[in-house]
Design a protein that fits this description.
The complex is a heterotrimer of chains A (459), B (415) and C (142). Chain A is of the alpha/beta class and 459 residues long. Helices cover 32% and strands 13% of the residues of chain A. Chain A contains 15 helices and 17 strands. In chain A, the strands form five sheets. In chain A, strands 5-15-14-12-11-8-7-6 form an eight-stranded parallel sheet. In chain A, α15 links the parallel β16 and β17. Chain A is globular, with a radius of gyration of 22 Å. In chain B, the strands form seven sheets. A five-stranded parallel sheet of chain B has the order 3-2-1-7-19. In chain B, strands 9-16-10-11-12 form a five-stranded parallel sheet. Chain B has a five-stranded antiparallel sheet with strand order 22-23-26-25-24. In chain B, a hairpin with a 3-residue loop joins β24 and β25. Chain C is of the alpha+beta class and 142 residues long. Helices cover 20% and strands 23% of the residues of chain C. In chain C, a hairpin with a 5-residue loop joins β6 and β7. Chain C is globular. Classes of the chains: A alpha/beta (459), B alpha/beta (415), C alpha+beta (142). Chains in contact: A-C, B-C. The interface between A and C is medium-sized, with 13 and 17 residues. Chain C: Keywords: 4Fe-4S, Electron transport, Iron, Iron-sulfur, Metal-binding, Repeat, Transport. Chain C: Pfam families: Fer4_11.
Chain lengths: 459, 415, 142
Amino acid sequence: MKADESKCVNCHRCVSLCPTRALKIVKTDHTFKENANWKGEVIQDIYRQAESGGVLLASMGTPKDYPVYWDKMLVNASQVTNPSIDPLREPMETRTYLGQKESVIKRDANGKIITKTAPQLKLEIPIMFSAMSYGSISYNAHKSLALAAQELGIYYNTGEGGLHEDFYQYGKNTIVQVASGRFGVHPGYLNAGAAIEIKMGQGAKPGIGGHLPGSKIGEDISKTRMIPLHSDAISPAPHHDIYSIEDLRQLVFALKEATAYTKPIIVKVAAVHNISAIASGIARSGADIIAIDGFRGGTGAAPARTRDNVGIPIELALASVDERLRQEGIRGNVSLVVGGSIRSSSDVLKAIALGADAVYVATSALIALGCHLCRTCHSGKCNWGIATQNPELVKRLNPEVGSERLVNLITAWNHELKEMMGGMGINSIEALRGNRLMLRGIGLHETELNILGIKHAGA
Amino acid sequence: MRSGSMQYVIIGNSITSVGCIESIRKHDTTGAITVIGEENHPIYARPLISYLLQGKTDEQKMTYRDEEFYQKHGVQVLTGRRVEKIEVEGQLLRLDDGSSMQYDKLLIATGSLPFIPPMKNLEEVEHRHTFLSLSDAKELEAELQPSSRVLIIGAGLIGLKCAEGILERVQSVTVVDLADRILSSILDEEGSARVQTHLEQIGIRFHLGDSVCEFCGQEALLTSGKVVGFDILVLAVGVKPNIALAKDAGLAVNKGILIDQACRTSNPHIWAGGDCSEGWELLSGERRNLALLPNAYMQGETAGYSMAENEQRFENAIAMNAIGFFGLHIITAGIYQGEDLCFATEKGYKRLFIKDDHLVGCILIGDQVARGGIYTNLIRSRTDLRTLDFAMISEQPALMAFAQKVRSEQLGRAQ
Amino acid sequence: MKKIYVNEQWCLACHLCEYYCAYANSGLSDMVQALKDKPLHPRIQVEQRGTVSFAVNCRHCSEPLCLKSCIAGAITEKDGLIVIDQDKCVGCYSCIMACPYGALMPSESGVMQKCELCATNSHGLPVCVQGCPNQAIVYEER
């Protein structure tokens, strides 16, 4: 048996399937003459560009060694003076609602409370699957997410690829996205989901649009996206009808009108330098939920330089947005959802303690589906049947298997979440949200601690 | 469920009887079942007698059903007892010990008897055997010596299985048959030739298109003028349905006892099945005596259902044989009519017969036998060949050749 | 009763079921030892043509033609499970002649073998199903 080393992308398909665990992939010992400045990958990139003359494309989140603040925060626990809670024996609430919250209590003439709450998303677990379009991922991957969201009582997100007719049945657990290309958007689509997300930006590629090559626009996708067969699907960098918060407000309300004010509107933005000001604007635009995507977030394809150099870490963005909205007294106007490399239940816990209402996960979900982070999604040859439209490869992902693995993952995280919350003596997401006293920094300097709004460990 | 008073009686204690008992008991757990068998053995796998001589099985393993079979099915067995007469008027059986037995429903499964054509001085041959029953096999075995020269009359299934069973244990085996080729009832010429070559290479001698004119002591004079010396003679020319009782009772008979698709005879209280019967054959649309084990079981089973008043019809009986000699396996089925397709390899041979877009027959030899049941099923189910990829399935039996919908039904639904 | 069913849609023709089957029925506890450098004699077999593939094994029919055709009485049914007593089998191929699915085949020793849902080996539950990476074969009630 022979293997072509040059074609191996280290996807681990062979390793995973070998019944006797007889295979392992080893790193080639071939190297460039590297030094601390001119690393192998840098040299390699130059050769690639010298050959192609094109923009370097990359997939999944940045592999660069930027600080991961989740790993620099530690969580508190109860000892002696306050009791911890055992989630196996006592109630522990991880259900949460996303949407505008009333800031004043209104009463009628008889003093009875008038309850007229804005539309909400009800999450059994404060985790959602973030936007991945049908097109960027396969039918079976989409179906896996939909089935899992349904079983878990959470939501998955169509991305900007429209909604395949087969998936309308999962509408109660679907967030439909409206992006700059407006692909697949029509009244039926808008009303099919539980919420509508306006995508202004994406963590992996802030400031730029998207491009699904015509070769991937097969019959099904062309129908779903409402574009001609084999035509390139180009999402413009901006929404050409939104150049201001006022413009955004128009779209928010246009969508509310289209859905008779029954569905919350999410505005998704990438975490960039002035994110707190932007979030403040969105919170005043009429949007119900702000989703912020950090720069470590994944993508099916993005220019490598953008992915690796544009945007800011989600932890810092979240802390500053939450703080800003509180200071302005408009935190209750919106719920905050954060994404961009949420890797574990402790990341979820820390995000909520920093001020998030819920998190978005995508890369973790794909890994649960089999993805081994070979980071060649843009080749369209995903060996796990996820980021591909090749029927033979798509077949490799049975949605029954996929959804079960997703359900397992999120259920496991929920158990862990409850356990850690219990350890802190906290029994609801409500009580954890924005509870930064539960976090301490480790190895962080003063500015970072200030932005995160937490003390250093020991302090 | 029927009341417990029903009296089922079965004459014969072999495969047909088992089929009958098993199907009666699926619907009537209380009626009395009595089996009367001439042989002094519990039900054994009759076709295994050649394997017994070959040492591939033993008497213990040859039992066709386990020891508790009769008890588990609430069957009373009389072995070594013969029915002398069926009195249809009184629904009564007269037994050889003078006793009699009443029946409500009777199955005749008396099997077959060896057919022995007249041969001059046959009675004078001292070591003379037939090869149908366990007793036959044991008697033959008792006489086998390493120095024995065995002459077998008949190159059909029985004669050749006998030859295979004893070849290693004797000095020589010679087979004589009137037909000019071996296994002429189930093979075509090419098939016969291939199997003959194989058997000759192993050491069996054949005199074909020939017959015994006369026996002279330990020599057989053949019509061709050849003389074959022998110590032991085995008569395996063929079998004939054992219909004496039925005929005597006035039931409609031809070569065998005539039965309908529910295996009922001309008498409403009497059923018949197995080698003694003549039931409807699917492909010819005529009644045929199919003296084959699967047929015997299924006729017994059908009779049992009908006797227990849960009538089912056995409508797809065809001739089918699986037989092997010294590692060379053969599967044949159906009739050899219509257009044919031939595939020959060094190690195997296949011929398919197609008539009116239906597969009606097949001959599979050697490396062509794998998954042969897929072909026999096409024949038995009268599958229209236009509904599948015949080019593919004729090359190799495979479920892939069926339409996806058919296949998902086959593999995805509880069968 | 629970049986093995085939979901053709998900079969990847990886043939792992065949390897797991041969291993499960080898009587050995180590797969490498059971299969390495030996001819494979699985009781489940994958049919493959172009992009279509599926595994075939015994359907455990309610009207088992193999059982009715067995000349040795070596094939029996117990609670819906069709099993073959290899000790009694003489290798006559009658079951191969009868089975509409082509689901019986000779074993290494020449006597017949068939899928017995791993109920008669040390595994207890069908190992091919456990080993199928895509649930293309499932073990369930239908």
